[in-house]
Amino acid sequence: MTGTKALSVLPLALGVTLLASPAGQIQDQMPRLQIAVDRSCMILPDSDPSVMGDHYDAFRDGAICHLESVFSSHHVEEKIEDGERSRFLVHVAEQEYLMQNVTDKPVVFVVRHNVPENWTVDSEPKPVSVEDGTAVFQVNAEPGQRVRLHVGMRRSVSIPAN
Questions:
Q1: Which of 61-65, 107-111, 122-126 has the weakest average pLDDT?
Q2: Residue 3 or residue 155, greater confidence
Q3: Cβ count near 33 (within 10 Å)
Q4: In 39-145, beta strands by DSSP E
Q5: Which residues pair with 46 in a beta bridge?
Q6: Which of 18, 102, 109, 160 has the fewest Cβ atoms nearer than 10 Å?
Q7: What is the pLDDT of residues 100-122, one digit of tens each?
Q8: Extents of the domains making up the chain
Q9: By three-state DSSP, how is residue 25 classified?
Q10: Residue 51 pLDDT more than 50?
Q11: Residue 18: helix, strand or coil by DSSP?
C-alpha cells in the first residue's frame, strides 16, 4: 500500500513543478517543426514533411518566406593604428527575410545563407554556425506568427596609400 501512495503523489508533484515553471521554459521544451530555407527563400527538402507536402525538391512559397528588401552598398573606411593610416573599400550586402509560420504548431526557421569567400557575416542576431561558406540562422515562430531576419555581410579591400 505504501508503494501505491508514493505513485499517486508523483503526478501531483510533477503537476506542481510544471505549474511553477515559467511559461517560456515549458514552451521552449515543446518540439518544433523545422522549415529550412536558403538565401533566395526556397523551401528546402529537409523541412518538415507537413510543410513539404507533395514537393520532393526545393520550392518557392511566398506565404512562407519572401525577401522584404535586398540592398548592396559600398563606402570607404579609414583606421589609424600606431600612427599608420589604413584605408579600406567596404562592400556591404544585406537582405531581410520575412517568414510566416503557416502551421498550427511552433516552428523553427533554419535559414542557410551562403557567404562568399572573403566576406564576413555582420548581423544581429549572429548565426548559430558558419560551416563550409554557409551561415546558419535559427528563428522561432509560433503558429500563424510572422518573423523577420536581417542578414548583413561585408567585405573589406585594402586601398593602397597615396
A1: 122-126
A2: 155
A3: 19
A4: 42-43, 59-60, 65-81, 84-100, 107-114, 120-121, 129-131, 134-141
A5: none
A6: 160
A7: 999 999 999 999 999 999 999 99
A8: 1-30, 32-159
A9: helix
A10: yes
A11: helix
Q: What share of the chain is helix, strand, coil (3-state, %, to 5)?
A: 20, 50, 35
Return the closest-CA partner of residue 60 out of 39, 75, 76.
39
Q: What is the pTM of this model?
A: 0.75
Contact (CB, 8 A) for 91 and 17: no
| CATH code matching the domain that covers 32-159, chosen among 2.40.160, 3.40.50, 2.60.40, 1.20.1410 | 2.60.40
**Cell for 49?**
514533411
How far is residue 71 CA from its own chain's centroid?
Answer: 19
Amino acid at 123: S
User: How many angstroms separate the CA atoms of 133 and 119, rounded?
Assistant: 9
Cα→Cα distances 26→20, 145, 161, Å: 10, 19, 58
Angstrom distance (rounded) from CA 60 to CA 25? 33
